[in-house]
Design brief:
single chain, mainly alpha, about 80% helix
């Protein structure tokens, strides 16, 4: 395997570890250190309720869909991180290719999920707009990291 692929794999490992630490810090510090009205946008996307109304389901159902997305992304991110550390193994290269490709599809679906209020209803309320921009930005960054991981997985096959 080339030094260039190893360099990219190490860089992506650092990015995945950094993202995991940031998300864990966000999950624990926002709920523990700050009272509920403060930093509410970092707790749960506020447009979840609107998305539930759009798909004609209770908002708890759209919250469950959001949590399923988060769980799948966490599992795929973990598989990607392990696969990047074990690029010498043929099995882990296959796992890395599959998990990063599936991650691309899941993250694309999540981007569409956050666009629903705009695509279906054209609801451009400031609350929805601010929340969607923040969560779309985060999702897009993770999408780019996953796309880079898929590229390393494809380039690393020998």
């Amino acid at each position: 395997m080339s030094n260039r692929i190893n360099f990219y794999a190490r860089a992506l490992q650092a990015v995945y570890v950094f993202l995991f630490i940031i998300f864990l810090l966000n999950a624990f510090t926002v709920d523990v250190l700050f009272a509920p009205p403060a930093l509410a946008i970092l707790r749960v996307p506020s447009n979840i309720r609107g998305i539930g109304e759009i798909i004609n389901a209770p908002w708890m159902q759209s919250l469950r869909v959001y949590h399923v997305f988060l769980l799948i992304i966490a599992v795929l991110g973990s598989l990607n991180l392990i696969g990047l550390t074990r690029l010498e193994s043929r099995i882990w290269k296959g796992v890395l290719r599959f998990s990063s490709f599936l991650g691309i599809l899941i993250l694309w679906s999540l981007i569409l999920f956050f666009f629903l209020p705009f695509l279906i209803q054209g609801n451009y309320s400031p609350v929805y707009l601010k929340t969607s921009i923040i969560y779309l930005g985060i999702t897009f960054i993770i999408f780019l990291v996953n796309l880079a991981t898929f590229t390393v997985a494809i380039q690393g096959r020998n």
